[in-house]
Amino acid sequence: MRSRPFVELTAVSKSFVPGHPVLEDITLAFRRGEIHAVLGENGAGKSTLLNILFGMHQPDMGGILLDGRQVVHRSPADAISNRIGMVHQHFKLVASFTVAENLRLAAPATIRKTLRNDADIARIADDFGLPVDPSTIVSSLPLSLQQRVEILKALINRAELILFDEPTTILNPAEIDAFYGVLTQIATEGRAVVVVTHHLEEVLDHAQHVSVIRRGKLISSAPVGNRKRSDLVREIVGKDIDLTAPLEREGGAEGPIELRLENIDVAPTQSSSGLRGASLTLRSGEVVGVAGVEGNGQRELFEVLAGLRKPDSGTVEARHAHKDGRAFAGLVPEDRHHEGLVLDLPVSINLLLNKIGQTPYAKRGRLIHSRINAAAEHMRTQSDVRTRSIHVTPRTLSGGNQQKIVLARAMNEDAPVVIVYQPTRGLDVAASEDVLKKLRLAANAGKAVLIISSNLDEIIRISDRIVVLFAGRTVGEVTSTTSREDIGDLMTGGRQTRTEHRS
Ligand SMILES: Nc1ncnc2c1ncn2[C@@H]1O[C@H](COP(=O)(O)OP(=O)(O)OP(=O)(O)O)[C@@H](O)[C@H]1O
């Protein structure tokens, strides 16, 4: 028999703007011993649901039961004292503090006493099976270890329900497996775990229970059992989508080389190998995928390609370039908050940021808002950015809808090249599919598309050629017909394959 719920949401409704409900009449139960996945499209209301449990938002109607007793969470402090912890999508750590200082800062006074010495913290971390050096400055830790500190924070604060908002978007495949090992242990020890994710394989492989929300309404909540990926997709989107259908490649004619990188070197950093003699070519009409485990030079490669960083040595040639040598390219950076958006300017301006001072959107230094608004409205509809209006700021949008703005802008650029770095990160299944289709269509129409992604499946689906990065080197160039295992082998430093660079 299943255990009694530890925490329940009872008939919870929430609106941020009157008349626009984000959650409607949600009743859900979270049990000890279970990993409970919450799925839904971008903007469905998943983060809002977690934030209500954690006391960051208050429900307009309905409430929270803890062991069957009504509780009110006016703030995260209330939730923490009720043994609820949360690991946010964007970590809440003080980057310049050490691990130990962060753990002490987050602990209530009674617990802080047990964390006086770094040695005590190291022992506690080991006991939880999450070893970490307490004296390390957080900013120097890779994201997977920063996440570990967040999990430790919750465990040290005696959380018995831990909420995770899209925890695996920052992890590579090996780290994802290790992460779910930790979650399974946390659940097996008698805690309840809630995970919001867009990755359905994770749910099928690791969760025991799954709930689906669509546009604020609960569609289903049931054990994972032997449900299939296609069942979940149908519930999430409300219709069937074939996520395995090949993306149509057109022609096969080889266009001219738009971008060529030869022997690029960039110095390594603590979290990345830098680049060591990396080379690649990108032709119009093709999609080239750069596969690799994060930290093997992807960031530096993007920065060099985007003209944001001068390599230490090597050459970059662009067929169409700005006066300063930067290639004309639509860009999707990895970090949408810091590099992709101006979070407090309206969606309309963000959509047209790259064109805002030019004709037809400005005349003699003055913005022509009617034109900006008409173009932005069109882009919003085309890209299915779900927002009440183009005049709100991206800060109030869900993560996936923020990403859609960055993508829409890059695709709208009148440039022969599109360079995208982790383009589907944070996007739901349908939106991810849409992005891949749009990128493929852009290549079919003659653009040169480069996609850097740690998601090997999407690279294989969309690319004509795949370049593998390992330890800063372009260690192999293969096609989408090469097996996943062979590509994986190259990604982890195995066998080296190099087809001739066509020039
Ligand atoms: N503070 C806020 N003010 C106004 N609207 C908000 C606020 N927070 C969330 N919303 C709106 O609530 C809706 C649900 O957002 P939420 O972040 O819960 O979605 P989500 O399901 O987590 O999406 P994603 O998968 O894209 O992260 C969105 O339309 C969003 O714009």
Helix fraction, binned, reads 25-40%
Tally of strands: 22
> Tally the helices: what do you get?
17
Overall form: globular
InterPro entries: AAA+_ATPase, ABC_carbohydrate_import_ATPase, ABC_transporter-like_ATP-bd, ABC_transporter-like_CS, P-loop_NTPase
Protein name: ABC transporter domain-containing protein
Domain ABC transporter: 7-240, 259-496
Organism: Pararhizobium polonicum
What's the short version?
By secondary structure, the protein is α/β, with parallel strands linked by helices.
Describe this structure as you would to a colleague.
With 503 residues, the protein is an alpha/beta fold. It folds into 3 domains: 5-237, Rossmann fold; 241-328 and 415-503, P-loop containing nucleotide triphosphate hydrolases (Rossmann fold), CATH 3.40.50.300; 340-413, no CATH class. It is built from 17 helices and 22 strands. It has helices at 46-53, 76-81, 99-106, 109-112, 118-127, 143-156, 173-188, 200-206, 229-237, 298-305, 336-340, 347-351, 369-383, 399-412, 429-444, 456-462, 484-491; strands at 5-17, 20-31, 35-40, 61-66, 69-71, 84-87, 161-165, 192-196, 209-214, 217-223, 257-266, 275-283, 287-291, 313-318, 329-332, 362-363, 366-367, 417-421, 448-453, 465-470, 473-479, 497-498. A hairpin with a 2-residue loop joins strand 16 (362-363) and strand 17. The site of adenosine-5'-triphosphate has 16 residues, from helix 1 and helix 14.
